C-alpha cells in the first residue's frame, strides 16, 4: 500500500517538472495568493544571519494540524513526543538536545514552566496563530531580550495581528470544528479598530474531546500466524479546555508601538496513562489554569537607538488527583507565579554595525500542597538575572556576523555563554549563502529537579549544550513559474552534565544527578517550493529530512555506551504537497497531502530488541474551499488524518489514534 | 527543469529510505539461548526482571543450568499469545508444587504458570506485592485493600491454589510487603512505603485459622524483608537494622542495613546497603562469618539467592538498562555471569526442569524457528578454509568457535562455514526436535553449483548427514548416531570404516591463496583422528576445469540450494551402524562431515561448506 502511495507521489513530482516549464502569465495570481489577510512580514529572509524555519498564514492553516505541536512536526531537526489524543502531552525536542533546551516564545516572551521546564505545545491552538518560527541557536535580530540568548533552540509563536484596510473597522471570525472522538471546537474572534493605529483583538476557543479512540495491538508469530490482535478504546483521555485572549496594539508614529496581551487557559483532562498488561484504564485527572498578561513597548530615538521594554506576570495552577484506588493515592496542587521584566537597547553605530545590550530579571514562585497528607504548604522561589551583549556586522552584504555573550545568574555563580553566527553570501545576485554558528547554552535545573519530593537534588549544576552548525542555503525565484528555497545543514552538538534521574542507594530512591554526556551529529535538509501552474493552479511542496545520530558517551563501561539516546530516530522526514486553485472571483479551493515519517528508535538507553520501537508514518489529507460573498468569507475544511489507519506509538505504551477526521466551517467578515 | 529533477532525486532518496525501514508486522520470535557456561548442574533458575513502572517490561528469563544457556524473555517466548506479555513491574516469583507463580505489581495480578512458564491463569489483585504458601493456600500481600480507605491500609489475600480464587482477605498495616508462614501464623511486614518520613514500623501477625490479625509487633521503621531461618527465627530488615524475631529467647538486633537477605542452612547472607558488601551471619549465634564473595564493584546489588552449591546475586546497574546475574561458589569464585532484563529483582531455583528445552513431544510447532538454533560441535579437518570460515582469533576455544559457527549459519544468518577436508564435522540443532513426517524433513544448504551448460557436473563437495535423538535428555549430542543413507551408501567403492589422523606437524602451506595454518588453531591437542565413511571420487576434468559428477541424492553441498529436493533429507533414510533401517519419530541433533578425501593443486582440497539448514516441517 505504501509503495502505491509513493508511486503516486513520484508521478506527481514528475508532473511538476513538466508543468514548471510551461510559460503562463500568473504574476498577478501569485500576488493574490501571497497577500491574504495576513500582514506580509517585512523581514527579507535572505538577509537573516540565522535563517528560521517558518510556517505562516494560509500555509499554516492548510496543514492537518490542530495544535502548535502538530504543525512543528513539519520542521526539520525536530522530534515531537506525543502521548496521543487531543489531551495528550506534546513536547518538542530540537536537534536531540532535550526538550528543556528549547524555549518557546509567545509574542516575543518566553512561556515558562519553572516546575518541569517543559511546555506542552498541544495546548496552544493554531486558530489564533499567524506564524510559527524555529531558530536554531538564536533569533537573527540582535535586538532581543537577554533571556532569548539563553536557549539552544527557539520557537516563536506569533498570534494574529489585526490588519485593516482603510475603510474597515471591525473583523469578525467564527469557526466550528467537529471531528472524530467527539471533538467539538468552536472558536470566535473579533478585531476592532478603536481609532487610527489602535486596535483590539479578542479570541476565544473551546475544545472538547472524549478521547475515546480505538487502538490496536497486533503481534504475529514467525510463521505469520497471529499471536494476538486486540483492539480496545482509550479511556480517561477526555479533555475540556477554554482559551480566551485579549490583545491591544497601538502603533504610534512610524517607529514606536506598544502591545498588551492577556491570555487565559483553563482545562480539565484525564491522564490516560500507559497501556500495560492487564491495565486498560488509569484514573488520574488534571486541572490546569494558565493565566498571563504581558506587554511590550518599543520605540526608536535619533534614528539609531532602539529601546524595548517587556513585562510579564504569569500565574499557573495545576491540580493533579489520582482516583485509581489501586495505586498510590495522590491529590496535589501547584501554583506557579512568574514575574518578568526585560529592558533591551540597540544602537546602530554605523549602517553596518549594530550593538545591543539587554538585562532581564525574573522571579519564580512555586507553591506545592499535598491535600491528602495535610502536610504544610511548601514554597520554593528563585531569582534569575540575565545580562546580554551582542553585536552584528554586515560587511558589504557579503558577510554578516552576529556575536553575543550572555551572563546568567540563577542560584549558582554567574555563567557566561558565547554565541557566534556567520552568514556568507558570495554572489550578490544569487541567493546562495553559507551559514555557520557556534553557541553554548545552559539548561537550568527546574524546581522538580531541585526539590521534587525525595528525588530533587539542590546541588545540581546546569546542563551545558554546545552547538556547532554549518548550513548551505539557496533560494531562487521566478515570479511567473516557481519559488524554491532549499538548504542543508550539518551540526554537531555536545550536551554535558546532563541532568538525569539516577537510583540512589537501595530500594528505588531516585535522585537527580549531573550525569550524562550526549554527542549529536545531524543533518537537516529541507526544500520548500511553489510552482505556478497553468489555469491558476499553484502547487506547493515542502520536504524535510533529518538524520540524527545522538549517542550516549557518558561512560564506556555502560552497556549503552555509544547507543542512540531514547526516542531519537536516525531518520525522520515529512513531505507536504498542496494544490491550490483560485477562481476568477477569488474563490479558493485546495487539496493538501502530507506524509510524516519517523524511523525506528529505542525507548530506553540500551538499543536492544526489547527497547526497539517501530517506525511510524502517517498520510494525512485535507480538502478545503473558501468562498467570498461580498465582504463575507466562508471556509470549509475537511481533514482525514492517518489515512491508512496505522496503529503506532510515538511513546511506548501510549497508542496513537487510528484514522480520524475533522471538519471545519469558518466564517469571517 | 533541473531543480525539479533535484527534488525528484531527493524524494526518491526518501522513498528508498522508507522502503528499507518500513514498519513490518511486529513478530514475536522464540527466545534463543545464550551460552553462558559449560558447567552442568541440575535444573534451572528463573529470573524475574522488574522493569520500570509504565514500561510494561516485566520479563521472566530462564537460566537452564543443565545446558548452561540463558533464555531472555522466556515467558514471552512460551506465551506469545499473551497480550502485552508478562506485564508491568514484576515483584515476586516462587515455585510451589507443580506451578510457578509471579506477582506482577502494576499489572495488578498474580500470573500462574506451569514449571515451563506456560500461562495457566491470572488472579487479579490490586497492587499486589509478595507471596507465601502453606498447604493448598497462597497468601498475597497487597498495598491496597478491596475498599479504599483514608488510612490506606493494605491487605493480605488468601487464595486457594487449586481453584485459584480468592477465599479470604484480612486488613493489615500500611503497604504490606514480604510475608512468611511460621506454624499456623502468617507474618507480614508493614512498610508504610507510601508515607514519606513516617513509615510504618510493624509486623502483623495473622492467625491462619481465623484469618484475623492477632498482633502487631513494632520493630523499626520501614520493614521490607522477612525471612525465616532453620531455627524458627524471623529475619526482618528495617531502615536502620536487621531485627531477628526470636520467639524463644527474645528479639535481637544486628546493626546492618540490609537491602536483601537469603538464608541457607545456618548462614544468612545479607547485602549491606551502607558498605555495598555481601556479609554472612550465623543464624545460630548471629556472629558475622567470613565470606569471600566480593561485590564491591557492583553498581546496585539487588536480588540474592543462596543455594546449596552456589550463590546467585544480581547487579541492577542504573535500573534503566540491563542488569547482570552472577553465579558464585562460596569460595568467592565467580563461575559465570550474564546480562538480564531491566532490574533483575527476583530469583527462583527450579529443580529437574532441564527437559524444558528438548521437549520434542510437544505437538505445537507454531512457535518454533525453522532455522538452526544452536551449534554444539565444530571439528573441521585440516583445510584451506579452516581458521578462516569461521575466523579464528587469538583466545578462541572450541566453545567460542561453535558460537561463531552459530552466528554464521543459525537463524537464516546466511553466513558460511567450512568443514575442511575429509571427516571434518559440525553438529547443530534447532530450537525444537525435528519431526519425521512424510517426505523430506530437513534442507541443508551449501555452496554447490552446476557447470554452465552441463547439469551432470559441477562443484560438488559431498558431506554425509548423521542424526541423533537426545535419548538421555541431557541436551547434549552424546547419544547414538544414525546415518541418512545417500545414493552411494551401497556402492562397493564406498569405504565405511575409514579414518584419518591430522597432526599439527603436517600443517604446511599448500595453497598460495591461503597462507595460514590449516590445522585448527584453537585445539590444544597436537593431533586428532576422525572416523566415518569415504565416498569414491567423482572428480573429472572437463574443458580444463576440475569438476565433480553431481550425486543423485543424500549428500550435503552436492546440489545447488535452489534445488530444494536435491538439498533435502528424509529422516526415514536413517540406518544404524550395520546398515539396518531404523524408524525415528524425531531427532534433536544433526551432524554433517566431509565425505571425500581429495585435494588438487589449483582448487585445494574438497571440503563440505554449510550455509544453513531448514526444518521443512515448520512453515516458514
Instruction: Determine the oligomeric state from the structure.
Output: heterodimer
What structural category characterises the helix and strand content of chain B? mainly beta
Of all protein chain pairs, which has the greatest interface, and how many residues does each chain bring to it? A-B, 76 and 79 residues
Our estimate of the beta-strand percent of chain A is: over 45%
Uncertain spans of chain B, ≥5 residues at pLDDT below 50? Answer: 353-365
Shape of chain B: elongated
Number of strands of chain B: 48
CATH level-four homologous superfamily name of chain A: TonB-dependent receptor, beta-barrel domain
Taken as a percent bin, the fraction of beta residues of chain B is: 35-45%
Return the CATH architecture of chain A: Beta Barrel
Mean pLDDT level of chain A? 86
Fraction in helix of chain B = under 10%
Protein model, in words:
The complex is a heterodimer of chains A (669) and B (620). With 669 residues, chain A is mainly beta. Chain A has a single domain (2-668), classed as Maltoporin, Chain A (Beta Barrel). Chain A contains five helices and 37 strands. In chain A, strand 4 and strand 5 (109-110) form a beta hairpin. Chain A is globular, with a radius of gyration of 25 Å. The two termini of chain A are 43 Å apart. Residues 1-46 of chain A have low confidence and may be disordered. Chain B has 620 residues and is mainly beta. Among the domains of chain B are: 125-223, Thrombin, subunit H (Beta Barrel), CATH 2.40.10.480; 374-615, no CATH class. Helices cover 6% and strands 42% of the residues of chain B. Chain B contains three helices and 48 strands. In chain B, the strands form 13 sheets. A six-stranded antiparallel β-sheet of chain B has the order 30-32-44-36-37-43. In chain B, strands 1-4-3-2-29 form a five-stranded antiparallel β-sheet. The longest helix of chain B has 19 residues, at 2-20. The two termini of chain B are 48 Å apart. In chain B, 49% of the residues are buried. Mean pLDDT of chain B is 87; it is low at 353-365. The chains are: A mainly beta (669), B mainly beta (620). At the A-B interface, helix 1, strand 11, strand 12, strand 27 and strand 28 of A face helix 1 and strand 28 of B.
Amino acid at each position: 500500500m505504501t509503495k502505491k502511495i509513493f508511486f503516486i507521489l513520484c508521478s506527481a513530482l514528475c508532473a511538476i517538472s513538466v508543468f514548471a516549464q510551461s510559460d503562463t502569465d500568473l504574476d498577478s495570481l501569485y500576488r493574490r495568493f501571497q497577500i491574504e489577510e495576513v500582514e506580509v512580514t517585512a523581514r527579507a529572509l535572505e538577509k537573516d544571519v540565522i535563517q528560521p524555519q517558518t510556517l505562516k498564514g494560509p500555509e499554516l492553516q492548510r496543514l492537518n494540524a490542530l495544535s502548535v505541536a502538530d504543525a512543528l512536526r513539519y520542521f526539520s531537526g525536530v522530534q515531537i513526543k506525543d502521548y496521543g489524543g487531543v489531551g495528550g502531552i506534546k513536547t518538542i525536542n530540537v536537534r536531540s538536545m532535550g526538550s528543556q533546551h528549547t524555549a518557546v516564545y509567545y509574542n516575543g516572551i518566553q512561556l515558562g514552566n519553572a516546575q518541569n521546564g517543559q511546555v506542552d505545545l498541544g495546548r496552544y491552538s493554531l486558530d489564533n496563530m499567524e506564524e510559527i518560527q524555529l531558530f536554531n541557536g538564536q533569533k537573527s535580530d540582535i535586538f532581543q531580550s537577554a533571556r532569548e540568548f539563553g536557549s539552544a533552540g527557539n520557537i516563536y509563536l506569533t498570534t494574529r495581528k489585526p490588519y485593516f484596510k482603510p475603510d474597515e473597522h471591525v473583523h469578525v471570525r467564527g469557526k466550528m470544528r467537529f471531528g472524530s472522538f467527539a471533538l467539538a471546537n468552536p472558536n470566535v474572534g473579533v478585531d476592532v479598530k478603536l481609532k487610527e493605529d489602535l486596535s483590539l483583538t479578542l479570541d476565544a476557543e473551546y475544545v472538547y474531546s472524549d478521547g475515546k479512540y480505538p487502538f490496536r495491538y497486533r503481534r504475529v508469530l514467525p510463521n505469520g500466524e497471529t499471536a494476538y490482535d486486540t483492539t480496545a478504546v482509550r479511556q480517561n483521555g477526555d479533555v475540556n479546555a477554554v482559551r480566551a485572549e485579549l490583545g491591544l496594539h497601538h502603533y504610534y508614529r512610524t517607529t514606536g508601538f506598544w502591545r498588551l496581551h492577556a491570555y487565559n487557559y483553563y482545562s480539565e483532562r484525564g491522564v490516560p496513562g500507559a497501556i500495560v498488561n492487564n491495565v486498560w484504564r488509569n484514573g488520574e485527572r488534571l486541572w490546569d489554569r494558565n493565566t498571563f498578561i504581558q506587554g511590550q513597548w518599543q520605540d526608536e530615538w535619533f534614528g539609531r537607538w532602539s529601546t524595548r521594554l517587556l513585562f510579564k506576570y504569569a500565574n499557573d495552577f495545576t491540580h493533579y488527583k489520582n482516583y485509581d484506588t489501586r495505586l498510590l493515592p495522590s491529590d496535589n496542587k501547584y501554583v506557579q507565579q512568574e514575574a518578568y521584566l526585560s529592558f533591551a537597547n540597540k544602537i546602530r553605530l554605523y549602517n553596518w554595525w549594530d550593538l545591543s545590550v539587554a538585562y532581564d530579571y525574573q522571579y519564580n514562585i512555586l507553591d506545592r500542597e499535598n491535600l491528602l497528607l495535610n502536610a504544610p504548604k511548601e514554597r520554593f522561589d528563585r531569582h534569575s538575572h540575565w545580562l546580554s551583549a551582542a553585536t552584528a556586522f554586515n560587511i558589504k552584504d557579503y558577510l554578516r556576523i552576529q556575536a553575543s555573550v550572555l551572563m546568567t545568574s540563577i542560584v549558582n555563580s554567574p555563567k557566561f555563554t558565547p554565541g557566534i553566527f556567520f552568514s556568507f553570501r558570495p554572489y550578490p545576485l544569487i541567493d546562495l549563502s553559507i551559514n555557520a554558528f557556534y553557541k553554548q547554552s545552559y539548561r537550568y535545573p527546574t524546581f522538580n529537579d531541585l526539590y521534587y519530593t525525595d528525588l530533587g537534588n539542590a546541588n545540581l549544576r546546569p546542563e551545558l549544550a554546545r552547538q556547532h552548525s554549518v548550513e548551505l542555503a539557496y533560494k531562487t525565484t521566478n515570479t511567473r513559474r516557481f519559488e524554491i528555497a532549499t538548504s542543508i545543514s550539518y551540526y554537531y552538538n555536545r550536551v554535558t552534565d546532563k541532568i538525569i534521574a539516577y537510583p540512589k542507594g537501595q530500594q528505588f530512591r531516585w535522585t537527580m544527578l549531573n550525569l550524562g554526556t550526549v554527542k549529536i551529529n545531524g543533518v537537516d535538509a529541507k526544500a520548500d517550493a511553489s510552482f505556478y501552474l497553468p489555469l491558476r493552479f499553484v502547487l506547493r511542496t515542502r520536504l524535510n529530512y533529518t538524520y540524527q545520530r545522538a549517542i550516549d558517551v557518558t561512560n564506556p563501561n555502560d552497556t549503552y555506551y555509544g547507543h542512540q539516546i531514547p526516542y531519537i530516530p536516525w531518520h525522520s522526514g515529512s513531505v507536504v504537497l498542496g494544490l491550490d486553485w483560485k477562481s476568477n472571483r477569488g474563490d479558493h479551493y485546495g487539496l493538501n497531502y502530507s506524509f510524516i515519517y519517523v524511523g525506528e528508535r529505542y525507548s530506553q538507553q540500551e538499543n536492544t530488541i526489547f527497547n526497539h520501537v517501530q517506525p511510524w508514518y502517517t498520510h494525512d489529507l485535507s480538502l478545503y474551499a473558501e468562498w467570498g460573498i461580498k465582504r463575507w468569507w466562508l471556509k470549509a475544511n475537511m481533514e482525514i488524518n492517518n489515512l491508512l489507519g496505522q496503529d503506532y506509538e510515538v511513546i511506548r505504551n501510549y497508542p496513537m489514534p487510528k484514522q480520524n477526521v475533522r471538519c471545519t466551517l469558518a466564517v469571517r467578515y | 527543469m533541473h531543480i525539479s529533477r533535484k527534488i525528484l532525486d531527493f524524494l526518491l532518496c526518501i522513498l528508498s529510505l522508507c522502503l528499507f525501514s518500513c514498519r513490518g508486522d511486529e513478530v514475536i520470535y522464540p527466545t534463543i539461548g545464550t551460552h553462558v557456561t559449560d558447567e552442568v548442574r541440575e535444573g534451572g533458575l528463573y529470573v524475574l526482571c522488574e522493569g520500570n513502572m509504565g514500561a510494561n517490561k516485566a520479563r521472566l528469563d530462564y537460566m537452564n543450568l543443565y545446558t548452561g544457556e540463558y533464555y531472555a524473555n522466556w515467558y514471552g517466548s512460551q506465551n506469545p499469545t499473551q497480550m502485552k506479555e508478562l506485564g508491568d513491574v514484576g515483584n515476586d516469583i516462587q515455585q510451589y508444587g507443580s506451578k510457578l507463580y509471579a506477582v506482577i505489581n502494576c499489572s495488578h495480578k498474580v500470573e500462574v504458570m506451569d514449571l515451563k512458564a506456560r500461562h495457566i491463569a491470572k488472579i487479579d489483585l490490586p497492587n499486589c506485592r509478595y507471596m507465601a504458601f502453606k498447604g493448598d493456600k497462597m497468601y498475597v500481600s497487597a498495598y491496597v485493600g478491596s475498599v479504599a480507605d483514608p488510612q490506606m491500609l493494605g491487605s493480605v489475600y488468601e487464595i486457594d491454589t487449586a481453584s485459584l480464587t480468592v477465599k479470604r482477605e484480612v486488613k493489615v498495616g500500611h503497604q504490606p510487603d514480604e510475608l512468611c508462614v511460621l506454624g499456623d501464623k502468617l507474618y507480614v511486614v508493614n512498610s508504610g512505603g507510601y508515607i514519606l518520613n513516617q513509615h510504618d514500623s510493624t509486623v502483623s501477625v495473622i492467625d491462619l485459622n481465623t484469618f484475623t490479625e492477632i498482633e502487631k509487633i513494632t520493630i523499626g521503621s520501614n520493614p521490607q524483608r522477612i525471612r525465616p531461618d532453620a531455627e524458627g527465627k524471623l529475619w526482618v530488615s528495617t531502615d536502620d537494622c536487621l531485627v531477628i524475631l526470636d520467639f524463644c529467647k527474645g528479639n535481637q538486633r544486628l546493626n546492618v542495613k540490609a537491602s536483601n537477605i537469603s538464608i541457607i542452612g545456618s548462614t544468612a547472607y545479607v547485602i549491606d546497603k551502607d558498605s555495598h558488601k555481601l556479609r554472612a551471619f550465623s543464624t545460630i549465634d548471629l556472629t558475622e562469618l567470613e565470606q569471600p564473595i566480593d561485590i564491591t564493584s557492583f553498581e546496585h546489588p539487588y536480588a540474592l539467592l543462596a543455594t546449596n552449591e552456589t550463590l546467585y546475586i544480581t547487579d541492577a546497574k542504573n535500573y534503566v538498562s540491563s542488569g547482570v546475574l552472577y553465579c558464585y561458589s562460596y569460595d568467592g569464585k565467580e563461575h559465570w555471569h550474564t546480562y538480564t532484563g531491566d532490574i533483575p529483582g527476583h530469583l527462583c531455583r527450579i529443580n529437574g526442569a532441564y527437559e524444558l528445552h528438548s521437549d520434542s513431544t510437544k505437538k505445537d510447532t507454531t512457535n518454533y524457528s525453522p532455522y538452526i538454533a544452536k551449534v554444539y560441535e565444530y571439528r573441521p579437518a585440516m583445510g584451506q578454509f579452516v581458521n578462516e570460515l569461521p575466523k579464528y582469533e587469538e583466545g578462541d576455544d572450541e566453545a567460542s568457535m561453535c558460537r561463531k559457527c552459530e552466528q554464521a549459519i543459525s537463524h537464516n544468518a546466511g553466513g558460511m562455514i567450512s568443514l575442511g577436508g575429509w571427516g571434518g564435522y559440525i553438529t547443530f540443532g534447532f530450537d525444537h526436535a525435528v519431526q519425521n513426517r512424510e517426505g523430506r524433513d530437513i534442507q541443508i544448504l551449501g555452496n554447490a553449483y552446476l557447470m554452465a551448460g552441463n547439469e551432470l557436473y559441477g562443484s560438488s563437495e559431498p558431506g554425509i548427514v548423521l542424526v541423533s535423538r537426545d535419548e538421555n535428555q541431557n541436551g547434549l549430542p552424546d547419544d547414538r548416531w544414525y546415518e541418512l543413507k545417500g545414493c552411494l551408501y551401497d556402492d562397493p567403492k564406498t569405504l565405511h570404516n575409514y579414518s584419518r589422523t591430522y597432526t599439527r606437524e603436517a600443517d604446511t602451506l599448500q595453497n598460495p591463496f591461503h597462507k595460514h595454518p590449516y590445522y585448527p588453531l584453537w585445539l590444544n591437542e597436537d593431533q586428532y583422528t576422525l572416523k566415518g565413511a569415504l565416498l569414491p571420487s567423482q572428480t573429472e576434468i572437463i574443458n580444463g576445469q576440475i569438476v565433480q559428477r553431481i550425486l543423485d541424492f543424500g549428500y550435503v553441498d552436492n546440489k545447488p540450494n535452489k534445488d530444494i529436493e536435491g538439498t533435502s533429507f528424509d529422516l526415514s533414510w536413517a540406518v544404524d551402524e550395520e546398515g539396518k533401517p531404523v524408524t525415528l519419530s524425531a531427532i534433536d541433533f544433526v551432524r554433517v562431515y566431509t565425505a571425500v578425501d581429495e585435494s588438487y593443486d589449483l582448487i585445494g582440497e574438497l571440503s563440505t561448506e554449510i550455509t544453513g539448514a531448514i526444518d521443512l516441517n515448520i512453515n516458514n
